[in-house]
Fold this protein.
Amino acid sequence: MPMWQWVVIYVVIAAVVYGLVYYFVFAKHSNSGYVLPSQQPAQSVATPLPATSVMATQMTVSPQASSMPVVSSQPTTISSTKTVTISMFAFEPSQLTVPVGTIVTFVNNDSVTHTVTSDTGVFNSGNLPTGQSFKYTFTKAGTFLYHCAIHPSMKGTVVVQ
């Protein structure tokens, strides 16, 4: 066989191997949370607040057309903080009782995106990908029902006294 045919065979084999490596290392894993380093969003580190009355910042996340959240802050006085985790398609705890002024942090520890959406439109986290969180300060007494807009069977309640 002439030399040029060996070169063509070698190039074709190299292209196939490269394509398989790309598929199994990058493309196939993109649905399971693998993100190229150049595609990773900037991470911020949050420090937990003490459970005493202090000045804090209420963080609200609202999605924009660019799919990057916009964070705005407003000073407020709080008396405590509580956390609700999202795991295995459920809010835990599903019912939480807190005093007025409490900041509740909803943390998505599930493998899929969820939302924290008030049944009456009082608050809405927008999409919360895995590992992201949403904070809301409950400034008025009442019972606040919420759900995941993506998975409507996921429901929770915050009772503010």
Q: What stands out?
A: The radius of gyration is 23 Å. The CA atoms of residues 90 and 154 lie 6 Å apart. The chain is about 15% helix and 35% strand. The beta strands are 54-62, 70-78, 81-87, 90-92, 95-98, 102-108, 117-118, 133-138, 142-147, 155-160.
